[in-house]
Each structure stands twice: as structure tokens, then as C-alpha cells.
Design goal:
Layout lengths: L3 H15 L3 H13 L4 H8 L10 H15 L3 H7 L6 H11 L1 H8 L11 H15 L3 E6 L13 E4 L2 E4 L6 E2 L2 E3 L10 E8 L8 H10 L5 H16 L3 E4 L2 H10 L7 E7 L7 H17 L6 E8 L6 E8 L3 E8 L5 E4 L4
Parallel strand pairs: 1-6, 1-8, 2-4, 5-12, 6-7, 8-9
Antiparallel strand pairs: 2-3, 9-10, 10-11, 11-12
Length: 344
């Protein structure tokens, strides 16, 4: 295969292997060899209208295969995922040929990772903002998916030797930490609300299965953490609105802000799903609201996103009324490693 889509499968496989998922890498490499067994899906991949990397096209198809394996069909694929054999080509080819329509439908929708481990970096950024403002936060998250990170104050954290969050939580997030510790500042979440074009519901069986299918099959710790976060979300349902992020955020930021509360906009690996116009609209909304901010009613923006060259992920904090931006950390894309850049 020579299409941009299939080249992206091989590049994604390399990234997966580098991030500790050799099984997923091998699945994607096998798909490149066997994709013609699924003619509908093969055409979609070859003729993908946009950037296949930005669309996470390879991870969409990986999610489809994982979903099939979790359902036990075909049996050979389920057995492969349970490490009962190593015939990748046979199992993947069978799945592609028997479930082409299912796979094509699955990859027509965006990935839904809602990676809970990223909450560690976000909590460290909130601690930094709390040290500056000393106020409760009204949290506004863009691209919330199932809203699991809106429950971030219900998780326990070990961040460079600093403990945070709820120590009794069943979800503990403790990334590999490099550099100085973050500031040991208390974080109080007064409210939390998110937006997504296609929000998922932790109480819906199909939505839960979709999220679990996008977790990588050879990362059991990540899978277990996701399952526990889903249990917390069922007990404490996050508020996620269905809407376009720039429009939704403009409405939220135009609402009256209580004195002594800091509004904080958060997003993780979200900007890649926006086109250039949407990104500009988002920046304009934030800049406009920033001009209205004051020391009694501050605004902050936490961004956990790829750099423009997609070489690394930066954790950035911008605060108004002064509009200062700081790069707080370089991070693993799923939050497993945090290289803190500034003294606590």
C-alpha cells in the first residue's frame, strides 16, 4: 500500500512500539498487509479526504479490531488478543474479511480515548494556577468525550513526590516524574462542565465499550484505570454538553463570573481535531474573555497539546489579566511521563 493513509498506519505503529505497545504496533502493521481483505474499509483509508494523522485513522481501525476481539468475534481474533496464539495475519485477515462493514462504520467516527492519566499533568497545572490565584476553579473542558477528566478532583495523585486529590480514590495517577516537583497548593473545583461534538455517557453500555476498545490491548494498567474511572463517572455523572467548542465556550465565558473564582479552560489532545479557522475562533474567544478578566475574576487556560511539528506534547498555562503563557512541562502523549520545566 502506498496511500497516505497506509503510510500513516506504519508511522503510527512505530509510535505505538516506542510508547510500549508492541502488540498494537504489530496489529497495525498486519492491517497494512491485509487491508485488501476489507474492500470497503480499504477504500476509506486510501481515499481519506483529510489528514489521516490528524484524524488518528490508524487508531480508529485498531479500536474497531479491539472492539471485535472484546465481543469474541471472530474467535481467532479474540484468541489473538488473549495471547492464545501469534498468528496475526490469519486473525486480522479473518476479521477484516468477515466484518468489513462494521470496521468501515467504526472508522467513520473519531477516536474516543478520554485518557485519564493526562489528569496528572492537568492537576499539576491547576496546582500552579492555585498557587498564583488561591481561588476555587470553575472548570470548562473542551473535547470532554465521556467527561472522565471533569472528575479529576475525585482521583488520587502522586506528582513528583507531591500528593494531591482524594487519597481514598480507586483511581491513582502517578506519572513518571522528571524535574522539580509542582507547587504543593490545594486545588478546589467549584464547578466542572465540558463540551464535545459526540459526548459519551459512562452509564451507557455501548459508550463504555467504545472507550474501552480505544484503550490499547497490551496496556492492562491503563485499561484497569479506565474501568475504575468509568465506575466513578457512573456514581458522579459529569456534565458534558453536545456542541461546537468555540461557540459553547463563547457562551460560557460571557456568563457572569463570581468574584473570587477563577475560570479555567482545559483541553488535552483536542486541537488536532479542529481546522485552522476553528482554532483561530477558539483563540479569539479566549483573548476576548481575557481582556475582561481581572485579579478578582481571573481567567486561565491549560493546554496539553502537540507542538506544531508534532514532535512533543507541551503542557501550557496562560493566565489573564496579564496574558502570560508558561510552558510548564513536556509530556508523554498519554500523560505517563511528565518532565516539569519550572520550579514549584
Amino acid at each position: 500500500m502506498t496511500s497516505d493513509g497506509m503510510r500513516e498506519f506504519l508511522l503510527t505503529a512505530d509510535r505505538c512500539r516506542a510508547m510500549g505497545s508492541p502488540f498494537v504496533a504489530t496489529v497495525l502493521e498486519t492491517v497494512v498487509r491485509q487491508i485488501d481483505k476489507a474492500p470497503i474499509s480499504a477504500r476509506m483509508v486510501r481515499d481519506w479526504p483529510g489528514d489521516p494523522a490528524a484524524a488518528a485513522l490508524a487508531l480508529r481501525l485498531n479500536g474497531a479490531l479491539h472492539a471485535l476481539a472484546r465481543r469474541g468475534t471472530p474467535q481467532a481474533l479474540a484468541q489473538l488478543y488473549r495471547s492464545q496464539h501469534r498468528d496475526f495475519d490469519g486473525a486480522v485477515a479473518l476479521a477484516l474479511s468477515e466484518h468489513d462493514a462494521f470496521i468501515a462504520e467504526w472508522i467513520s467516527h473519531p477516536t474516543q480515548t478520554n485518557e485519564v492519566a493526562r489528569a496528572g499533568a492537568i492537576m499539576a497545572a491547576l496546582m500552579t494556577a492555585s498557587q498564583r490565584w488561591g481561588m476555587p476553579f470553575d472548570l470548562l473542558e473542551l473535547g470532554s468525550s465521556c467527561g472522565l477528566n471533569l472528575n479529576l478532583d475525585r482521583y488520587a495523585y502522586g506528582l513528583g513526590g507531591v500528593e494531591a486529590g482524594d487519597p481514598r480514590s480507586t483511581v491513582r495517577i502517578e506519572p513518571l516524574w522528571r524535574g522539580p516537583a509542582p507547587p504543593q497548593a490545594a486545588v478546589a473545583i467549584a464547578s466542572a462542565r465540558g463540551v464535545d461534538l459526540h459526548p459519551l455517557n459512562a452509564s451507557d453500555d455501548q459508550d463504555r465499550e467504545r472507550l474501552l476498545s480505544f484503550a490499547w490491548a497490551d496496556q492492562p494498567v491503563r485499561m484497569a484505570r479506565l474501568e475504575k474511572a468509568l465506575e466513578i463517572a457512573r456514581a458522579y455523572p459529569p456534565q458534558v454538553d453536545e456542541d461546537h467548542a468555540p461557540l459553547w465556550l463563547a457562551r460560557r465565558l460571557s456568563e457572569p463570573q463570581p468574584e473570587g473564582r477563577c475560570r479555567i479552560v482545559v483541553h488535552t489532545m483536542f486541537l488536532q481535531y479542529l481546522d485552522q479557522r476553528q482554532r483561530q475562533d477558539l483563540a479569539t474567544v479566549l483573548e476576548t474573555a481575557g481582556h475582561r478578566a481581572s485579579t478578582a475574576r481571573p481567567l486561565a487556560w491549560i493546554s496539553f497539546e502537540w507542538t506544531p511539528d508534532r514532535r512533543e506534547v507541551e503542557l501550557r498555562l496562560t493566565s489573564w489579566p496579564n496574558g502570560e503563557t508558561r510552558v510548564l512541562a513536556k509530556c508523554h502523549p498519554y500523560g505517563d511521563v511528565v518532565e516539569w520545566q519550572t520550579p514549584g
